[in-house]
Please model this.
Amino acid sequence: MSSPSPPFRPDVARLAGYLPGEQPQEEGWVKLNTNENPYPPSPKVVEAIRQAAEGRLNLYPDPLGRDFCRAAARLFDVDPEWIIPGNGSDEILTILLRTFVDPGQKIAYPYPSYVLYETLGEIQGAAVDRIALRDDWSWPLESTRGRLADCRLLFVPNPNSPSGNRFPDGDLLQLVPDEGVLVLDEAYGDFCDEPHSGDLLSSQEAAGRMVVTRTLSKSYSLAGLRLGFGVAHPDLVAGMRKVKDSYNCDTLSLAAGVAALEDGDWMRENAARIRRTRLRLVEGLATRGFDVVPSQANFVWTTHPDGEHLRRFEALKKERVLVRYMVFDAEEPGREGLRVTVGTDEQVDRFFEALDGVGS
Ligand SMILES: *Cc1c(COP(=O)(O)O)cnc(C)c1O
Model:
């Protein structure tokens, strides 16, 4: 006898669900599949967690995470009212949808990019408009404007994932929706050759119509902690605060987050190392006949003219080297390729060793 199907909301029943990259739990993998930082977080972070753990865990955290807001505000040269912390920047994306988008309303995002925007939109019952990027991953500005008229949120990862290219600030300013908000997802902003920190927020045109999101998962080496934040005009933040869970960030991550942001030198040294290794990765791939998109992030998007990406992915995996094999179906001709996170020099050496063993 088959049991009746669960009484899900139709939007949930239809949902495929977002599929994150694999997280093998045993040692020994060269893990280049989810853009984690190969270097540890600042020792000051670990010390802050220890102190916070010995402190007041019986009490709820500060609902607004005000110490953390002050630390993040200093980075962006804004008042703390411009900051909203979240359980990873993914939670900020969820809060944005719940704050600005009613079921049936439209959101948009470039394609291919971070497919989680689409999943979160579907959960909210939004209509999702994929804006196809050009073959060279640049933005088709002329054709986009008309599609933004009834758009509530336009999500733009900058640098983009999986391609790693950075859209020019001037272009992005043209993309603020008439009746909505431009969300600049700067998860990889610290890896740019010229790191940016919310320059666009100070532009008069865009004030009040733009949210920048940041994460501590990548450049600050804290993916295991779950902490990110949004930066926006206080009028926008006020609405988002109404929607968030009361205690969406816990005492330990907030304390760790303050220590991480205050040790900016640690983060910048690791980001500089990663940029140096990125060059080696790009050159090594090019030498082996791969095409590589110029990257401003801690990963590269690479394709081979022979199209054998899945075979390489699987062969690498047998050697315990994990990269991300990605396929994007679209109205446009589909694209597939490998996204490879920039690890340490040693990890990149092992990647090439395994790749050479795979044969072409
Ligand atoms: C990794 C990533 C995030 C978010 O990460 P959190 O760990 O939730 O802070 C957001 N956007 C993009 C494009 C990412 O790649």
Summary: The pocket of pyridoxal-5'-phosphate is lined by residues 35, 88-90, 114, 157, 161, 185, 187, 215, 217-218, 223, 228 (CB under 6 Å). The mean pLDDT is 94.
